[in-house]
Specification:
The complex is a heterodimer of chains A (460) and B (362).
Chain A (H helix, E strand, L loop, with lengths): L1 H12 L2 H7 L16 H4 L9 H8 L15 H7 L11 H18 L2 H16 L7 H40 L3 H26 L8 E8 L3 H21 L3 E9 L5 E9 L3 H5 L4 E8 L8 E13 L14 E5 L17 E5 L4 E5 L5 H27 L15 E6 L5 E4 L5 E2 L2 H5 L4 H18 L1
Parallel strand pairs in A: 4-9
Antiparallel strand pairs in A: 1-3, 1-5, 2-3, 4-5, 6-7, 7-8, 9-10, 10-11
Helix pairs in contact in A: 4-7, 5-6, 6-8, 6-9, 7-8, 8-9
Chain B lengths: L4 H16 L8 H4 L19 E4 H18 L2 H6 L4 H15 L16 E4 L3 H13 L4 H5 L1 E4 L2 E4 L12 H13 L1 H4 L2 E5 L5 H7 L7 E6 L2 H13 L6 E5 L13 E6 L14 H4 L15 H13 E10 L3 H14 L4 E8 L5 E8 L1
Helix pairs in contact in B: 3-5, 3-6
The chains are: A alpha+beta (460), B alpha/beta (362).
C-alpha cells in the first residue's frame, strides 16, 4: 500500500532534470585522494570504467538542481524556518526534519560546497573540450576528480531528496488520514536523523589524524596551589569526559603539587576519534572562584594550559627515531645504588637530542615500562612537531595544529559570583558549571568543531 | 611503511608489557605438579581472586586515611636513611589500589552515593594493616603487594627473597645481545647462582633458543619456592631448572659444560649493613646482601666458579657493589685466573656506577 503511494508521489516530486542525473549515479569513477575526502563518502564505490564519449555526454548536462517538495519546501527553507529541535524520542516531524537539515548543512560546509560547485563546473568545461583526450593522463585525472566530486554532490543531494521525500510522505499521509503510513514515515525520518547525525560527526572529524587516540596534557599556570588545584580539576574533567565517551584512560605522568593538585599531568586516551574531539580543547583554560586555599576568601583567577597530541601508533606517518639521537636518563636515589637501595621510583626521561624534545614517564612500575611509555610519548611529540612543520609548509592545514604553543585563552569557567562556562572562540556557554567539570564537554566540542568549519569556508 | 626497527621494538615492548601485567601465564593447577618444594609461596595480591568486597565509601575512607598518612611523612625518611618521600609513597598507594581493587574505575568516578560495593582481592582490614606496615615498619612496598615489576615481568616476592633491582636488568640485556649473535651460547646451558626470585634466570630463559636452558640455584628454600612459582607463571618449566644449595654445590655435574654463568651475589660490606635504608636493612634477607668484610666473599668464589664451570668460549657476568669491587675483581682474575678467563670488561649501570664485571672463558 505504502509502496504504491510512494511510487505515485515520485512523479510529482522531482523535476525532470534531476532524473537525468540520477541515472548515472552508479557510474562515476572514485578518486580517493581528492581535496575533499570525508570518510563517509569514500564508502561508496563508483565503477571506474567510463568511456570518453560517455563522459563528454553527461558532463554537458547541468550538474544538479536544488530539490524541493511539491509545495516548494527546500532544505535551506527548513533551516530558515528555525523549527525547534527536540530530543529524538519526543520529536515531531518538524524537529526531526530540522535536525536532519542541520546535519546536511554541516556536511555541505565540510565539503566546502560553494567551492565544490565551482570546481565541478570548471572540470565539466574541461571535459567538454574537444582536445581533452589528446593528453590521456591529464584527461584521466580530470575525469576522476570530476567523477569523485560529482559523486559527493550526488550523495548530499540524495540526502536532501530523501529528507524531502519523507516530509512529503508524512504530509500526504496526514491529508489522507493514513495512520499506518504516517507512522512508518516517521520511523523512516527518525532513522534518517540518526544516520545523518552519524555522517555529520564523521564529516566533522575527517582531518588526517582525527580518528587517532591521543594524549592530553594539562599544566598549571602561575599562581601556586590554587592553579595547581585548577589543573587537577581540568584533568579530572577530561578523565570523566573520556570515560563517559567509552574511551580508555591511562595516566602517563603526574607531577603532584606540594599542597594540592598537580603541576602537570599527561593522560593517554584510547579510542576512535579521541584526537578529533579532544583537539578542540587545546589552549588556556581560565577559572574564577573563591579559592578554598585562601583563608581570606578572596576571589582568584587561575589558568591551566591544555595540549592534545594525536597518538599515531604504528602508522606509517611516524617520525623515524634513531637510537643514537636519544639521551636516556633514569632517576635513581643518590648514593651506592644496587642492593643498597630499594625504591619504587623508576622514572625515565628521554631526550631527543637533535630537537631537544623530551618525554618523561614515572608512573609505570618498572624502569623498563617507564622507558617504553616515555618512548611512546616522545614518538608522539616528534610526530606532532613534524605535523606542525608540515602544516606550516601547507597553508591549507588547519588552525589547531599551530596553536599547540598554548598561546591563547579558549574558555572561561566562572564559579563566583555567578556560575557560567563560556567558550571564548564560539561564545557557546553553559550555566551548569558543575556538569561541565564532571565531563559534560560535548556541547563545547561540537560547537567548536562546526565553528571551525565555518572558518574554513570563510577562508576558502 | 617507514617504520624503523626501533619504533617497532618499542611498540612490541609496550604491548607485551601491558598485556602481561595481570594475566597469570599458567593455570594455578600447574603449581602443585612441580618438583618437591617444602615451602608454599605466597600469592601476590594482584593474582588473588576478588572474593572480598567493601562499600565504596569505606574504601574511600581507607584511601583518604592512607593518603594522609603517606603525606605526613614528608621527607623525613629521606633525611633519616634515604628512604621514600611522600610523593613516592602516594604513587605506591595508587599501585596498591590497582592491585587490590578489581575495577579501579572507582578512583576516577565522583559519581555514586558510596553505597555500592567494590570487589577486592584483600580484606579492608588487611589493607589498613598492610599500609600501616608500609609506613610504620617500613616494610618494602614490593612485600606489601607481593610482587615487583622488573623488566617486562611481574615477579612474585616475599620476605626472605631479595627484591630484584632495576640495575640487574642490564645483565639480561647483555646476555640477550650476546646470544643473538652466538648460536652456540643461545643453545647452551646457563646458570644463575643465588637466583632469589628467579629474575635473572627467567629473563635469560626467555632469550635463549631451542635447547638452551638455565639452572638456577639458591641456598634459601623460600627463594627456591618463590623462583619456582615465578618460573611457572611464565611457563618456563622446560627452560629453567631450580636447584637448592649453596653457589656451585648443586652444579657439580656441570663442570666445564656451562655456556654462561651470571649472578647478583651479596656484595655489601658487613659494616655497611647497619646504615642501609630501613626497607632494605630491616626487611630484606641479610644472606642476600652481606658479602663479608669487604663484600667480596661471594664474588671471589664466583670467579673460581667461572674458571671451573664454563666451557671454552663461555660467558660470565657478575654484579658488584661498584667501582672498587669491579677493579679488585678484575685484578684478582688477571693475577690468578688469566690462564682461563679473558676479555674482562667493566660495565657501568644506568646511573654511571661501574657495576658489572663480564668476560669469557678461553
Amino acid at each position: 500500500m505504502s509502496h504504491f503511494l510512494r511510487k505515485s508521489l515520485s512523479s510529482f516530486l522531482y523535476r525532470p532534470t534531476l532524473f537525468c542525473c540520477r541515472h548515472f549515479s552508479h557510474s562515476h569513477p572514485h578518486n580517493t585522494t581528492s581535496l575533499f575526502s570525508p570518510t563517509w563518502l569514500s564508502r561508496n564505490s563508483y565503477t571506474n570504467g567510463l568511456s570518453p564519449t560517455r563522459a563528454r555526454f553527461w558532463a554537458s548536462q547541468p550538474a544538479v538542481t536544488e530539490p524541493s517538495t511539491s509545495d516548494g519546501l527546500t532544505v535551506e527553507g527548513i533551516i530558515s524556518n528555525n523549527w525547534t529541535i527536540l530530543d529524538e524520542n519526543d520529536g515531531d516531524w518538524k524537529s526531526h526534519a530540522a535536525a536532519i537539515a542541520q546535519s546536511i548543512t554541516l556536511i555541505k560546509r565540510r565539503l566546502q560546497w560553494k567551492k565544490l560547485k565551482v570546481r565541478l563546473n570548471m572540470l565539466s568545461v574541461q571535459l567538454n573540450k574537444e582536445d581533452l583526450w589528446d593528453d590521456p593522463v591529464r584527461a584521466g585525472k580530470i575525469n576522476r576528480e570530476h567523477g569523485s566530486l560529482l559523486g559527493k554532490m550526488k550523495e548530499v543531494n540524495g540526502l536532501e531528496r530523501e529528507l524531502l521525500e519523507h516530509i512529503e510522505m508524512i504530509k500526504l499521509a496526514r491529508e489522507e488520514n493514513h495512520e499506518e503510513l504516517e507512522l512508518e514515515s516517521m520511523k523512516a525520518l527518525l532513522n534518517m536523523r540518526r544516520n545523518a547525525k552519524e555522517k555529520e560527526i564523521e564529516a566533522l572529524l575527517s582531518e588526517e589524524h582525527d580518528s587517532c587516540s591521543c594524549y592530553i596534557e594539562v599544566q598549571a599556570g602561575a599562581g601556586g596551589t590554587e592553579s595547581m588545584d585548577w589543573a587537577s580539576m581540568i584533568m579530572q574533567m577530561y578523565k570523566s569526559w573520556a570515560q563517559q565517551r567509552g574511551y580508555k584512560v591511562t595516566v602517563m605522568e603526574e607531577m603532584p603539587g606540594e599542597v594540592a593538585g598537580i603541576k602537570r599531568a599527561t593522560i593517554k586516551v584510547d579510542g576512535e576519534f579521541a584526537f578529533g574531539y579532544a583537539k578542540s580543547e587545546i589552549g588556556v583554560h581560565r577559572l574564577v572562584r573563591i579559592s578554598p586555599f585562601d583563608s581570606n576568601k578572596r576571589r582568584h583567577t587561575s589558568f591551566a594550559a591544555v595540549a592534545v597530541i594525536p597518538n599515531l601508533g604504528d602508522q606509517s606517518s611516524s617520525v623515524q627515531i634513531n637510537e643514537s639521537d636519544l639521551r636516556i636518563e633514569r632517576f635513581r636515589a643518590s648514593g651506592a645504588g644496587g642492593q643498597h637501595v630499594n625504591t619504587t621510583e623508576s622514572a625515565v626521561k628521554i631526550t631527543h637530542i637533535p630537537t631537544g624534545v623530551t618525554a618523561t614517564c614515572q608512573n609505570e612500575r618498572s624502569q623498563h615500562q617507564n622507558k617504553a611509555s616515555a618512548m611512546a610519548v616522545l614518538q608522539s611529540r616528534l610526530n606532532q612537531l613534524e605535523m606542525a612543520r608540515q602544516a606550516q609548509l601547507n597553508s591549507q592545514h588547519t588552525q589547531s595544529l599551530t596553536d599547540i604553543t598554548w598561546g591563547s585563552q579558549i574558555r572561561s569557567y566562572v564559579l563566583h559570583p555567578y556560575r557560567m562556562v563560556k567558550d571564548l572562540r564560539t561564545n557557546y556557554e553553559v550555566s551548569d558549571a558543575d556538569s561541565v567539570l564532571e565531563g559534560d564537554l560535548d556541547g563545547f566540542i561540537m560547537s567548536y568543531l562546526s565553528a571551525s568549519l565555518d572558518k574554513n569556508e570563510d577562508d576558502a | 611503511m617507514k617504520l624503523t626497527l626501533t619504533n617497532h621494538t618499542f611498540s612490541t615492548l609496550l604491548n607485551s608489557s601491558f598485556i602481561n601485567l595481570r594475566r597469570p601465564f599458567c593455570s594455578a593447577s600447574l603449581l602443585s605438579s612441580s618438583a618437591p618444594i617444602s615451602v608454599k609461596p605466597q600469592v601476590p595480591i594482584f593474582l588473588r581472586p576478588p572474593i572480598y568486597s567493601a562499600k565504596l565509601s569505606d574504601l574511600k575512607k581507607w584511601h583518604n586515611w592512607a593518603k594522609s598518612v603517606a603525606s605526613s611523612i614528608g621527607s623525613s625518611f629521606v633525611q633519616s636513611d634515604n628512604g621514600p618521600d611522600s610523593e613516592i609513597l602516594c604513587r605506591e598507594l595508587k599501585w596498591f589500589v590497582e592491585d587490590v581493587v578489581e575495577d579501579k574505575h572507582w578512583l576516577f568516578s565522583e559519581m555514586g552515593d558510596g553505597d555500592e560495593r567494590v570487589k577486592m582481592r584483600a580484606d579492608l582490614e588487611e589493607l589498613y594493616c598492610l599500609w600501616k606496615q608500609r609506613i610504620e615498619e617500613r616494610k618494602p612496598f614490593q612485600y606489601v603487594v607481593g610482587c615487583e615489576h622488573w623488566k617486562d615481568l611481574v615477579l612474585s616476592v616475599e620476605e626472605g627473597v631479595l627484591i630484584p633491582r632495576p640495575e640487574t636488568e642490564l645483565i639480561v640485556d647483555l646476555v640477550s645481545d650476546l646470544v643473538s649473535k652466538n648460536e652456540d651460547l643461545r643453545r647452551g646451558v646457563w646458570a644463575d647462582l643465588g637466583t632469589g626470585s628467579g629474575a635473572l634466570a627467567i629473563g635469560i630463559g626467555r632469550v635463549l633458543g631451542n635447547g638452551g636452558k638455565v639452572i638456577a640455584s639458591d641456598l634459601s628454600p623460600v627463594a627456591v619456592a618463590v623462583a619456582a612459582y615465578n618460573v611457572q607463571r611464565y611457563c618456563l618449566q622446560n627452560k629453567v631448572e631450580l636447584r637448592e644449595g649453596s653457589w656451585l654445590e648443586p652444579l657439580k655435574d656441570m663442570e666445564g659444560k656451562l655456556a654462561g654463568l651470571v649472578s647478583n651475589p651479596p656484595y655489601i660490606p658487613s659494616t655497611d649493613i647497619a646504615g642501609l635504608q630501613a626497607e632494605v636493612g630491616k626487611h630484606e634477607p641479610r644472606v642476600a646482601l652481606d658479602g663479608g668484610v669487604d663484600g667480596m666473599d661471594a664474588l671471589l668464589h664466583l670467579c673460581d666458579g667461572a674458571d671451573l664451570m664454563l666451557k671454552p668460549g663461555g660467558f660470565f657476568a657478575f654484579e658488584t657493589n661498584g667501582e672498587k669491587q669491579c677493579r679488585e675483581l678484575v685484578d684478582y682474575m688477571k693475577s690468578n685466573r688469566s690462564a682461563s678467563l679473558c676479555n674482562l670488561e667493566i660495565i657501568a649501570d644506568f646511573a654511571g656506577i661501574q657495576r658489572f664485571v663480564i668476560g669469557f672463558h678461553r
